[in-house]
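Quick review question:
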């Protein structure tokens, strides 16, 4: 776990695939940080604990938002934009190329 510096990132296209790998009752609760894109109501409830991942892209087939939930902290689900190719402000550094430049600079400093 985090105390040992070991982290695990799992990515699944469907919640049914999660159930094939993890037991939803004994192992899924061990994953306290969860992110979900648009999914069925039952799947949203099983993974996030509420229906918030059901209403993420009602008007478009393109994912625009995701939901994050931290079960360890006990916080409610939070909607966020997981990626963007559009500038968020007037500063050019806020655009995709600016973000890539900032990430590159941080990696060079390591």
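Suggested answer, residue by residue:
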């Amino acid at each position: 776990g985090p105390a040992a510096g070991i982290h695990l990132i799992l990515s699944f296209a469907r919640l049914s695939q999660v159930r094939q790998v993890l037991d939803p009752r004994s192992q899924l609760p061990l994953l306290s940080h969860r992110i979900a894109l648009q999914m069925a109501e039952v799947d949203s409830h099983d993974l996030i604990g509420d229906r918030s991942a059901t209403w993420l892209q009602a008007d478009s087939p393109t994912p625009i938002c995701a939901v994050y939930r931290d079960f360890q902290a006990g916080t409610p689900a939070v909607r966020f934009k997981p990626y963007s190719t559009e500038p968020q402000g007037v500063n050019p550094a806020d655009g995709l190329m600016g973000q890539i430049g900032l990430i590159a600079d941080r990696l060079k400093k390591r």
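Why it works: Helices lie at 15-21, 41-48, 96-108. Residues 96-108 form the longest helix (13 residues).
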